[in-house]
């Protein structure tokens, strides 16, 4: 018999297809966020003043430390300033305040910048809903 038996090759191919279908969604990247399991409550007071970085509706960043707090700050300057704050005040809390009309992409960009600056955890500032 001079024919090649292809049945084992088809079996291997189908097994590999199933493995790739299962592992492909697990390879996507993202920003790690620990979501609360209960309704949000006010955070406990810290002895250090928090770093608050705001994002306006157009995607400009503002930080509450240093001079010109009411002027937008560039991404590279933001990283440098946050690095310096973490160096001189380790464990300082960092919060993000976003305008309700800001694009989700700008908030994720800010979170990625803060992650690159070495911020271990980020809090989100919200207002309580009106009754």
Write the layout of secondary structure elements.
Elements: H1 7-23, E1 51-55, E2 61-63, H2 75-88, E3 94-98, H3 104-116, E4 123-124
Helix pairs in contact: 2-3
Question: Can you put this structure into words, describing what you see?
Answer:
- With 131 residues, the protein is of the alpha/beta class.
- It has a domain at 51-124: Nucleotidyltransferase, domain 5, CATH 3.30.420.270.
- The protein is built from three helices and four strands.
- The protein has helices at residues 7-23, 75-88, 104-116; strands at residues 51-55, 61-63, 94-98, 123-124.
- A four-stranded mixed sheet has the order 2-1-3-4, covered by helices on one side.
- The radius of gyration is 23 Å and the shape is elongated.
Please give the radius of gyration in angstroms: 23 Å
- H/E element order: HEEHEHE
CATH topology heading of the domain at 51-124: Nucleotidyltransferase, domain 5
Structural class: alpha/beta
Number of helices: 3
- In total, the number of strands is 4
Which consecutive residue ranges, at least 5 long each, have pLDDT under 50? 29-38
What do the pLDDT scores average to? 78
Most strands sheet: 4 strands, mixed
The appropriate CATH architecture of the domain at 51-124 is 2-Layer Sandwich
Shape field: elongated
N-to-C terminal Cα separation, in Å? 82 Å
**Order of strands side by side in the largest beta sheet?**
2-1-3-4
Strand content: 5-15%
CATH class annotation of the domain at 51-124: Alpha Beta
Provide a short characterization of the protein structure.
The protein is α/β, with parallel strands linked by helices and 131 residues long. It has a domain at 51-124: Nucleotidyltransferase, domain 5 (2-Layer Sandwich).
């Amino acid at each position: 018999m001079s024919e090649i038996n292809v049945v084992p090759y088809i079996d291997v191919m189908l097994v590999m297809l199933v493995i790739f279908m299962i592992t492909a969604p697990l390879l996507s990247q993202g920003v790690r966020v620990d979501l609360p399991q209960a309704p949000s409550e006010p955070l406990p007071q810290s002895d250090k003043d928090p770093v608050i970085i705001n994002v306006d509706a157009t995607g400009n960043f503002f930080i509450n430390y240093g001079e010109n707090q009411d002027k937008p700050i560039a991404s590279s300057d933001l990283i440098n300033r946050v690095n310096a704050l973490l160096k001189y005040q380790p464990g300082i809390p960092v919060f993000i305040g976003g305008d309700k009309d800001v694009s989700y992409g700008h908030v994720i960009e800010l979170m990625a910048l803060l992650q690159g600056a070495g911020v271990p955890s980020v809090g989100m500032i919200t207002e309580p809903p009106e009754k």
